[in-house]
Amino acid sequence: HTKYVGTKRFSLEGGESLIPMLELIVERAGLHGVDEVVLGMAHRGRLNVLVNVMGKKPAELFAEFEDIDPESMFGGGDVKYHLGFSTDRVTRTGAGMHLTMAFNPSHLEAVDPVVVGRVRAKQRRRKDLVRERVLGVMVHGDAAFAGQGLVAEVLNLTSLRGYRTGGTVHVIVNNQIGFTTSPLESRSTPYATDVAKGIQVPIFHVNGDHPEAVAQVVRLAMDYRKQFHSDVVIDMYCYRKYGHNEADEPSFTQPLLYQKIEQHPSVRTLYARELVERQIIDQKQADAIVEREHQKLNDAFASKRSQRPRPAFGAGVWQGYRGGLDTATPEVPTKVERKVLEEISTCITTLPEGFRPHRVVAKLMANRAAMGKGEMPLDWGMAEHLAFGSLVREGFMVRLSGQDSRRGTFSHRHAAVVDQRTAQEYVPLEHVSPTQAPARIYDSPLSEAAVLGFEFGYSLDFPDALVAWEAQFGDFVNGAQVVIDQYISSCEDKWNRLSGLVVLLPHGYEGQGPEHSSARFERFLELAAEDNMQIVYPTTPAQFFHLLRRQVVRKLRKPLIVMTPKSLLRLPAARSELKELYEGSFQRILDDPTPPHRDSVKRIILCTGKIYYELAEERVRRKDATTAIMRIEQLYPISARDLAGALDTYAQAEEVVWVQEEPANMGANHFIYVRLLEVAGHRSVHVVARSESASPATGSAKAHTIEQQKIINQAFAPVDQLM
User: Fold this and answer.
1) 22-52 pLDDT, tens per residue?
2) Helix, strand, or coil here: 614?
3) Residue 608's pLDDT is what?
């Protein structure tokens, strides 16, 4: 406040009791056998906590304030009050403890599900099934706790089998004001904590001006959590000495409140006065403490580093994994021996003796058994099960969650089979091998933001697992846009943190209306840069099999966004032979499987996803011998060399036509068109798509059919009729 006047730091003055509160939480956790604490908090008091609780060196913090060598931060990094930190410390009782503060954006409460996801992953790594050795602590603001719906979503996870962590400690730094907003304007309840009443957990209200009362509350809260494995909430009433930040003037909007605050003694002053009155210390001792701490900070300021530190990476469970450029990490074999596939197939299609599944499921299991023997082509559900089964057999955990993911929204998965007499569930993937890794498929609550944030957090501490979230329909991911923008797409660029999270988004135009057609994958393509993630739209079960395996077996760790099918789940043409699993690999671009003679091809149709099958069917109907149809399966990263090489296989072609079923302002059009122009050479480039639209799709099934046929017809139309 004196060395960097007017610089934002989001100070803790007025709520200083948070520091002893967090110290006491850590100490009490040590007494309870906790080995690790994951802390999530927004900006208020964060720098203070980093130094005084986490043990970050003040000299490093001052170097961040100096902001030296800005060229090293071009386009990346983050502000100092968003950065995370990890440290090892020893409690006063001699217990070793690892402390982690999660990185977070300015989006208040967005870090909450990430924290509980990380806690759950760390508990799994430690085989802490009782959930007592890793603790999550979240520090909230009062306005955010009452106002952000994500808080309620995360609280709802507390007792669910796929998400429980043994209890999170929630601490509210209750400034009794938002940015400029009073409680009367920010909530409809008496207390900011009333949202937590819905999960029946204890809520403690305490005056932050009384540190010993704070200490008593910590003991009560921590002991309750230990006994009942429950969330607890501590609401610490305090105030904010300055504005929302140190450059802000709070009296613009709360003049009377800030007149009182200006006259109010600090927590330190009040407590020192009390200790002097009780003759525990004298005033000289109290002043000496202040002088000593000031001197430490002045020494640190004088010795501050000349270079802004970057977050370190690559230790612990992340050793051997890498981010960076896609091309810097070689591809790896993903095929699985036929004998192994057959053994896995037998395991996942065999039910316990006397188990009675639904008759439709019984038929599905019989068909899968035939697929596993090579007697029938593989469908998507079986290819996915074989991918999951092979991974857990090789020691890689599989965790998939989402709304209705156990059965599958479209009844294609049936990962959990239910006995029709007893309602007992049986999960075949949990019985692949006596030495297998866990296979966990969970139905999630009806939440996108909290569950996707949870799985992202889980992926941060489990690089050696397939961690996936599936949307019920692809566009439901809209409800988790903050997680996509602030974590999935940018965590490596901002914080040097990697994630291998898989996001499965059912996508495809089948006349189901605006909310059940598009996963809005143009938004992911717009976010794609610096090889930050992988965006894929596979069209065959074999491609999906190899894609899932590649995500784990390859050492590159990037989020994987997958447009998954709906109608293709049962389309006979969209099947794969078992041979493709034990001989093949994932192909970023799929050549035409039944092309005309290469020298006779005049037009190359490029597409992605489901529309390929409609185009291929139309070509047969037209007896067209001059058009080749190629599929771009991996839209990002995509190299100019790969695109050019694919086009050059048809050297005589004169036209390249990009065909998509999405409106022209959506889908991959804008992303892929400019890239095609760069590599097309002598060929002309055209686009066939629905007309630009404010909505992804029509609400009329009949109108959809007319539009879809128009696209198919245009794809084969003379060049002068194309865009």
Assistant:
1) 999 999 999 999 999 999 998 888 999 999 9
2) helix
3) 97
Residue 72 confidence (pLDDT): 62
d(CA 288, CA 223): 35
Neighbour order of strands in the sheet with 168-174: 85-90, 96-101, 36-41, 134-141, 168-174, 232-237, 203-207
Taking the chain, what is the end-to-end CA distance rounded to the nearest angstrom? 60
d(CA 158, CA 199): 8
The answer to whether the beta carbons of residues 588 and 639 sit under 8 Å apart is no
Nearest to 605 by CA among 582, 635, 628: 628
Distance, in Å, from the CA atom of 389 to the CA atom of 346, rounded to the nearest integer, reads: 11
Residues in Cβ contact with 31 at an 8 Å cutoff, skipping those fewer than 6 apart: 91, 93, 95
Name the maximum alpha-carbon separation found in the chain.
100
- For residue 57, what are the contacts with CB-CB under 8 A and spacing of at least 6? 51, 300
Helix runs in 350-433, H state only: 359-372, 380-393
Residue 76 Rama label (left phi>0; alpha psi -120 to 50; beta): beta
How far is Cα of residue 178 from the mean position of the Cα atoms in its chain? 28
Q: Are 95 and 135 in contact (CB under 8 A)?
A: no
Query: How far are the Cα atoms of 396, 398, 415, 438 from residue 435, in angstroms, in the given order?
Result: 11, 14, 20, 9
Per-residue pLDDT, 248: 86
Q: How far apart are CA 447 and CA 471, in angstroms?
A: 10
Count CA atoms within 13 Å of residue 500 on its CB side. Answer: 27
Distance separating alpha carbons of residues 409 and 653, to the nearest angstrom: 42
Is residue 305 pLDDT above 90, yes or no? Answer: no
Instruction: Give the span between the Cα atoms of 118 and 165, in whole angstroms.
Output: 10
Nearest residue to 85 (alpha-carbon basis) of 97, 99, 73, 69: 99
Q: Is residue 77 over pLDDT 90?
A: no
The residue whose two tokens read 């890689």 is 396
Q: Grade residue 7 by pLDDT with cuts at 50, 70 and 90.
A: confident
Eight-state DSSP code of residue 486: I
For residue 684, the cross-strand partners are 655
**Residue 602 half-sphere exposure toward CB, CA atoms < 13 A:** 7
Sign of CA dihedral 131, 137, 142, 145: negative
Q: Can you read off the two tokens belonging to residue 542?
A: 């074999």
Which residue from 634, 484, 670 is spatially nearest to 544, judged by alpha carbons? 634
E strands, 519-654, in order: 534-536, 560-564, 589-590, 603-607, 627-632, 634-636
Report the C-alpha gap between 156 and 694 in whole angstroms: 34
CA dihedral 246, 250, 256, 257 (to 10 degrees): -60
**Rounded to an integer, what distance in angstroms lies between the CA atom of residue 602 and that of residue 682?**
12
Which is higher by pLDDT, 115 or 9?
115
319 has pLDDT over 70: yes
Q: Measured between alpha carbons, how far is residue 211 from residues 233, 237, 274 in Å?
A: 17, 12, 11
pLDDT value, residue 585:
97
Q: How much is the pLDDT for 306? A: 62
For residue 637, whether the previous peptide bond is cis, meaning omega lies within 30 degrees of 0, is yes
For residues 440 and 459, what is the distance between their CA atoms, to the nearest angstrom? 14
Beta bridge partners of 207: 237
**Residue pLDDT, tens place only, 172-183:** 999 999 888 899
Listed in sequence order, the DSSP H helices in 126-175 are: 142-147, 149-155
- Give me the amino acid identity at 614: E
| Nearest-10 crossing angle of helices 58-66, 283-302 | 50
Closest CA to 478 of 517, 439, 438, 519: 519
Dist CA 687 CA 673 (whole Å) = 8
SS3 state of residue 131: coil
Q: How far apart are CA 593 and CA 575, in angstroms?
A: 13
Q: Dig out the tokens for 696 from the structure.
A: 């992804």
Confidence bin at 63 (pLDDT 50/70/90): confident
Calculate what percentage of the chain has a pLDDT beyond 90.
85
